């Protein structure tokens, strides 16, 4: 099976790609290490993801996250905007983005349910919504192709607006998502909002009305990491933002982000990013 890397499409310094694509021939089964988001403008196709297949056409938005494999076995002159990006870096750009219920549904719950649980709901934009989304796509594509000075900052701003708009259209209803998964997503929002506080696995499981073991197992299945790992990532993402945007000392940042001390903060930071917080600050300002 083919596997694509983000760096086949974009550079390390700006892990983002946008293109307006046309597909008239089937596309073989493949997987990739990046997140892919597509918004369909015209034509139709059958989209196969893992063992499931469904029809798609104008106005549909679909997301593929690692490690899902997908293919287009049948296609009829498909035209679409295609985004390829690093989801972790996107979330570091705006930590509030992850608190949107629609963001959880779009990038986490929806792919999990549709592609592993045969969940059949999808995001289909009406003509008014599609027109607005397309206007943002065109603006991003123009900046991406022209690459004028400051284009990365402009694209980031447009893309955050685009993702926020799309996420708002996909606010999950309790009836459409299994209650237990909805409750798990609520604990994620809680972690995003209360990362500074002491949070335990027992507390999170209690919020979900599940046993600790059942909660941890379901969380791992959906998010690909343990609840405590996710909490640490939330804290580290916030720490990165403070390092970038303030002159606060690293010990103070550690405390503001929920770490007990600078030593544990530095250890967790290096374990995730491969460098110390001090090295990160120096590299960011060089």
List the helices and strands and how they pair.
Layout: E1 2-4, E2 16-23, E3 27-32, E4 35-49, E5 52-57, E6 60-64, E7 70-85, H1 87-93, H2 101-116, E8 123-124, H3 127-146, H4 151-169, H5 179-193, H6 201-207, H7 212-223, H8 227-245, H9 250-256, H10 262-273, H11 277-285
Parallel strand pairs: 1-3
Antiparallel strand pairs: 2-7, 3-7, 4-5, 4-6, 4-7, 6-8
Describe this structure in words.
It is a single chain. The protein is built from 11 helices and 8 strands. With 286 residues, the chain is of the alpha+beta class. It folds into 2 domains: 2-169, Jelly Rolls (Sandwich), CATH 2.60.120; 179-285, Arc Repressor Mutant, subunit A (Orthogonal Bundle), CATH 1.10.10.60. Strands 1, 2, 3, 4, 5, 6, 7 and 8 form an 8-stranded mixed sheet that branches. A hairpin with a 2-residue loop joins strand 4 and strand 5. The relative contact order is 0.10. The model is unreliable at 173-177 (pLDDT under 50).
Radius of gyration, in angstroms, nearest whole number: 20 Å
Mean pLDDT, nearest integer? 84
Straight-line distance between termini? 41 Å
Integer tally of domains: 2
Number of helices: 11
CATH fold naming of the largest domain: Jelly Rolls
Sequence of secondary-structure elements: EEEEEEEHHEHHHHHHHHH
CATH architecture of the largest domain: Sandwich
Residue share in β-strands: 15-25%
Which characteristics define this entry?
globular, 286 residues, alpha+beta, 2 domains, Arc Repressor Mutant, subunit A, 8-stranded mixed β-sheet, 11 helices, 8 strands, Jelly Rolls
């Amino acid at each position: 099976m083919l596997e694509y890397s983000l760096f086949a499409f974009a550079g390390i310094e700006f892990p983002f790609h946008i293109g307006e694509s046309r597909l008239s021939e089937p596309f073989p089964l493949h997987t990739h290490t990046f997140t892919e988001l597509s918004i369909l403008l015209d034509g139709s196709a059958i989209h196969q993801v893992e063992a499931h297949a469904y029809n798609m056409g104008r106005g549909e938005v679909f997301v593929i996250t690692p490690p899902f494999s997908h293919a287009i076995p049948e296609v009829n002159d498909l035209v679409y905007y295609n985004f390829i990006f690093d989801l972790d870096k996107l979330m570091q750009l705006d930590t509030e983005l992850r608190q949107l219920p629609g963001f959880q549904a779009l990038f986490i719950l929806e792919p999990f349910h549709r592609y592993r649980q045969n969940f059949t709901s999808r995001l289909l934009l009406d003509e008014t919504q599609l027109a607005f989304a397309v206007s943002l796509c065109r603006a991003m594509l123009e900046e991406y192709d022209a690459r004028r000075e400051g284009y990365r900052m402009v694209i980031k701003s447009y893309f955050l607006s685009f993702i926020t708009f799309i996420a708002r259209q996909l606010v999950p209803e309790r009836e459409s998502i299994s209650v237990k998964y909805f409750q798990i997503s609520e604990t994620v929002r809680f972690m995003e909002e209360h990362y500074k506080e002491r949070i335990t696995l027992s507390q999170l499981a209690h919020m979900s009305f599940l046993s600790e073991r059942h909660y941890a197992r379901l969380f791992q299945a959906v998010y690909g990491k343990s609840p405590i790992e996710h909490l640490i990532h939330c804290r580290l993402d916030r720490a990165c933002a403070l390092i970038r945007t303030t002159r606060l000392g690293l010990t103070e940042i550690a405390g503001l982000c929920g770490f007990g001390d600078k030593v544990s903060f530095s250890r967790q930071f290096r374990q995730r990013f491969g460098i110390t917080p001090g090295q990160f600050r120096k590299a960011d300002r060089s």
